[in-house]
């Protein structure tokens, strides 16, 4: 009887050890995965990733509460619509003109469309880019899911609209990843 009790106790101990080992391995695996956060892709193309375009500075990011530091006077409209953050980067096209790219990450695709639709189309041409796009003489605006992208050139030259479209298409590709 003592032998049977000892054998049962040993079997229980072995089962407990096996369960504890599996649980420990699971915890270690989870911890090792969480130490290496997923690298988030950037929507901003690197220099020369788009023919003629060079990124000329660092990407700056503003949270919704800091957005007024970047677009003072109009930030509240974006915050009310559901902006989560705004990232911006400067570019130069073939040393002919500078442009700025703003990517607004909204709470939803509907929020991005709200901002897009609230802006006057004026002389814009509809553009098949993202979910909805417009091309102006010196700028381009489009929506891709929960992102609103605005590219503004600092000159109006004949080569500006096609150059903006090339940069916009690459940004759309980056947002699709």
Describe the structure.
The protein has 177 residues and is an alpha+beta fold. It has 2 domains: 1-38; 53-175, Protein Transport Mog1p, Chain A (3-Layer(aba) Sandwich). Helices cover 37% and strands 27% of the residues. It has 4 helices and 8 strands, in the order αββαββαββββα. Strands 1, 2, 3, 4, 5, 6, 7 and 8 form an 8-stranded antiparallel beta sheet that branches.
Task: Provide key terms for this protein.
177 residues; alpha+beta; Protein Transport Mog1p, Chain A; 2 domains; 8-stranded antiparallel β-sheet; 4 helices; 37% helix; globular
Separate helix tally: 4
CA-based gyration radius? 26 Å
CATH topology of the largest domain: Protein Transport Mog1p, Chain A
Query: What is the oligomeric state here?
Result: single chain
The CATH class label of the largest domain is: Alpha Beta
Report how far the terminal alpha carbons are from each other.
66 Å
Category from helices, strands and their pairing: alpha+beta
Instruction: Please estimate the helix content.
Output: 25-40%
In the predicted model, the low-confidence regions spanning at least 5 consecutive residues are 19-39
Query: Domains counted in the coordinates: how many?
Result: 2
The main sheet comes to: 8 strands, antiparallel
Q: What is the 3D form?
A: globular
Name the CATH architecture of the largest domain.
Answer: 3-Layer(aba) Sandwich
Proportion of beta-strand residues: 25-35%
The whole-number mean of residue pLDDT values reads 85
The helix/strand series, from N terminus to C terminus, equals: HEEHEEHEEEEH
Number of strands: 8
């Amino acid at each position: 009887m003592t032998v049977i009790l000892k054998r049962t106790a040993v079997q229980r101990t072995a089962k407990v050890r096996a369960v504890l080992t599996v649980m420990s391995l699971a915890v270690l695996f989870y911890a090792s995965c969480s130490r290496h956060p997923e690298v988030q892709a950037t929507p901003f193309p690197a220099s020369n990733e788009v023919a003629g375009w060079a990124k000329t500075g660092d990407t700056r990011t503003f949270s919704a509460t800091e957005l007024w530091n970047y677009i003072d006077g109009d930030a509240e409209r974006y915050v009310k619509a559901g902006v989560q953050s705004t990232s911006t980067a400067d570019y130069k096209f073939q040393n002919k003109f500078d442009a700025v790219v703003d990517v607004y990450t909204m709470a939803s695709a509907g929020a991005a469309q709200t901002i897009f639709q609230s802006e006057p189309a004026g002389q814009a041409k509809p553009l098949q880019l993202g979910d909805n796009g417009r091309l102006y003489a010196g700028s381009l605006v489009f929506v891709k899911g929960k992102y609103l992208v605005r590219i503004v050139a600092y000159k109006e030259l004949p080569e500006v609209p096609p150059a903006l479209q090339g940069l916009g298409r690459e940004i759309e590709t980056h947002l699709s990843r």
